[in-house]
Specification:
The protein is α/β, with parallel strands linked by helices and 357 residues long. It is globular, with a radius of gyration of 19 Å. The longest helix has 18 residues. It has a 9-stranded mixed beta sheet with strand order 5-8-9-4-11-12-13-1-14, sandwiched between helices. It has a 3-stranded mixed beta sheet with strand order 7-6-10, with no helix packed on it. A two-stranded antiparallel ribbon has the order 2-3.
Length: 357
């Protein structure tokens, strides 16, 4: 059977890194971030490496490296790019769409990357709220809108499903009296660490959904491959029947780099000998494969698997607070900005380098 799904495949380009000249500019300028004064999330500073004097030099050195794939033409709309790609062209192509990102704290970093790169065009940003059992839920949900009418949302959901029932939380048919999305639940144990339900965000026909495989949390909590696969199937069944938008992008999870504080730059594609045993990161490949295979089985052209693992695995130098150590999350600006550029390339129909799943 020939599947019509697409996978954004960059496996042959993982080690193609070039270093820019060492010029005296701030991290924001080096990344092409246009304005971060509108950031309203309390933990934005926790992801921005340039705010701490002790890691500024390391973060800036990491930012000097550029990923240049040879089989895919990135739509690089950053101000520092030498290519003739513009932010206006991207926003014109996206129009008044809604982009919804759902996932764990790595997905939050992807949202913040998109917010940084679109910064000069953002006219409003705010926290989002849902009600659960009649009360506001203090989850990590936020949004911004650009002057062109593009709306971007982030909702944290570490598991995507209720990890005890392997089912999705479904919004009540009618909003509560205040007009907020409302959910009725008896079990909320899966909503710790600021997670929120998210199925109320699937109703817009002019929308893109960006999910993460969220392998970090599943591994950390000790759920095996069978439970994980059941959760994947539950999410896809719901999306196939209920998602009214245009595309679903599922981003692969990427294992961290133990002893990332020792990294002086990108490395060629190899594993640390003990990496697979470090906080269950060795399970990530199986989790990513579960999504890839389940998407292929759906034979639904709306689903795209975004395989950022090869291009990201070569960047142990880009991690957040390695002295902490935090060898899973990445500095912003930084490596994750290339995930944003990869998505932008797809949105702009720069399809060179895409292969069938």
């Amino acid at each position: 059977m020939t599947h019509t799904n697409l996978e954004i495949n960059v496996r042959n380009n993982a080690a193609l890194m070039t270093k820019q000249p060492d010029v005296s500019v701030d991290l924001e300028d080096l990344a092409g971030y246009t304005n971060h004064s509108h950031y309203h999330l309390d933990n934005w500073d926790a992801h921005f490496c340039g705010r701490r004097p002790d890691d500024f030099v390391r973060a800036r050195e990491s930012m000097l490296w550029r990923w240049r794939p040879k089989s895919c033409s990135l739509f690089d709309f950053r101000r520092i790019s030498s290519q003739q790609h513009t932010l206006g062209a991207l926003l014109g192509k996206l129009g008044k769409r809604k982009i919804v990102l759902v996932g764990d704290s790595i997905s939050l970093e992807q949202y913040l990357s998109l917010e940084g790169l679109l910064g000069s065009e953002i006219v409003d940003a705010q926290s989002e709220t849902v009600h659960i059992n009649g009360k506001p839920h203090a989850g990590q949900s936020t949004s911004f809108i650009t002057r062109s009418g593009l709306q971007v949302y982030f909702t944290r959901s570490d598991f995507l499903v209720n990890k005890d029932t392997m089912k999705l939380d479904l919004a009540d048919p009618k909003a509560d009296p205040l007009g907020m999305p409302h959910y009725t639940m008896t079990n909320m144990s899966h909503l710790d660490w600021h997670s929120s339900p998210w199925t109320h965000l699937l109703d817009s026909p002019n929308s893109y959904l960006v999910l993460a495989t969220s392998a970090h949390w599943w591994s950390h909590r000790g759920y095996g491959p069978e439970q994980y696969a059941a959760g994947v199937r539950a999410v896809l069944r719901h999306l196939v029947s209920k998602f009214k938008g245009e595309r679903v992008f599922v981003r692969a999870s990427v294992a961290g780099h133990p002893q990332c504080q020792l990294a002086q730059g990108p490395y060629s594609d190899f594993l640390y000998p003990h990496e697979e045993h470090w906080v269950n990161w060795g399970e990530f490949k199986g989790h990513n494969d579960a999504w890839r295979q389940a998407i292929a089985a759906q034979n639904d052209t709306r689903f795209v698997f975004l395989d950022v693992e090869p291009m990201t695995r070569v960047r142990p130098d880009g991690h957040l607070r390695p002295d902490g150590p935090d060898c899973l999350h990445y500095c912003l600006p930084g490596v994750i900005d290339y995930w944003t550029l990869l998505l932008a390339s797809f949105w702009m129909s720069c399809r060179t380098g895409l292969t069938a799943v």
